[in-house]
User: Which sequence fits this backbone?
């Protein structure tokens, strides 16, 4: 089940650098939002605040109505127990620029490990679902391969499948195609387009304007840690 994301008056810092300066962003369940903005504008930090990878200095983040983080300047961070944080993170899929597959595990093992360890699925059930996901990203037959035996595009498709193996309510993508050779970008965007069609809630940081035009319900522009524009791609993105 997809969930919405609600971000209110969010502030975040790196040391003394004030990176997010009051971000408000509502993403409806099933909505696909492309996050666009200059390098250093805080896009990656914003995703990381949703996934417990970045401390929130002020503001609130909810996913599926559930509080991820809340703080006012100077107050102690809203305390979640480590188990709550682990459970919430399990429900939020994240795909990074550099694939981040476990190099010593096969494709199938990469998809099975977390569902067995975190969601306590039976290994046989996790494997059956993993095979279906490998097929869904177009890589049936490569279950026994190691990541280094795959192209970058194939590795990223497996990274997406691995995130989906946890049955997340939300998927976050942080420049998922920017480390790829140009000829491999399309296959990853194809998988993301299919996923968008399933009603998955997606927040995608990308420079791929073609993808944003075709797959996004909405594009959101970030600049200097604030949302400066938000609307349908047809209105905000000029034709190529
Ligand atoms: P974007 O994803 O839009 O390129 P980021 O969220 O990665 O932006 O970074 C926003 C700002 O935070 C940048 O000015 C960057 O210098 C700073 N920053 C990002 N990561 C770190 C870090 N690990 N340590 C210190 N500063 C960082
Ligand atoms: P600005 O960047 O808007 O000029 P400041 O950096 O002076 O503002 O800080 C504004 C507020 O943020 C202050 O209340 C301060 O306590 C808080 N603050 C500053 N640095 C951090 C930090 N690293 N983490 C959390 N809160 C911070």
Assistant:
């Amino acid at each position: 089940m997809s969930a919405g994301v609600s971000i209110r008056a969010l502030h975040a810092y790196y040391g003394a650098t004030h990176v997010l300066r009051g971000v408000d962003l509502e993403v409806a369940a099933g909505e696909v939002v492309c996050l666009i903005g200059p390098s250093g504008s805080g896009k990656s930090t914003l995703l990381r605040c949703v996934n417990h990878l970045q401390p929130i200095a002020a503001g609130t983040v909810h996913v599926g109505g559930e509080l991820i983080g809340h703080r006012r300047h100077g107050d102690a961070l809203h305390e979640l127990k480590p188990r709550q944080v682990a459970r919430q993170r399990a429900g939020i899929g994240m795909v990074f620029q550099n694939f981040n597959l476990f190099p010593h595990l096969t494709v199938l093992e990469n998809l099975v490990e977390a569902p067995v360890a975190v969601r306590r699925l039976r290994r046989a059930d996790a494997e059956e679902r993993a095979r279906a996901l490998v097929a869904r990203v177009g890589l049936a037959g490569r279950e026994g391969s190691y990541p280094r035996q795959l192209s970058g595009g194939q590795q990223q498709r497996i990274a997406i499948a691995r995130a989906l193996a946890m049955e997340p309510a939300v998927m976050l993508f942080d420049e998922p195609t920017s480390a790829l050779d140009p000829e491999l970008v399309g296959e990853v965007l194809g998988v993301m387009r299919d996923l968008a069609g399933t009603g998955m809630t997606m927040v995608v940081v990308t420079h791929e304007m073609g993808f944003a035009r075709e797959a996004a319900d909405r594009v959101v522009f970030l600049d200097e840690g604030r949302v400066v524009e938000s609307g349908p791609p047809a209105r905000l993105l000029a034709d190529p």
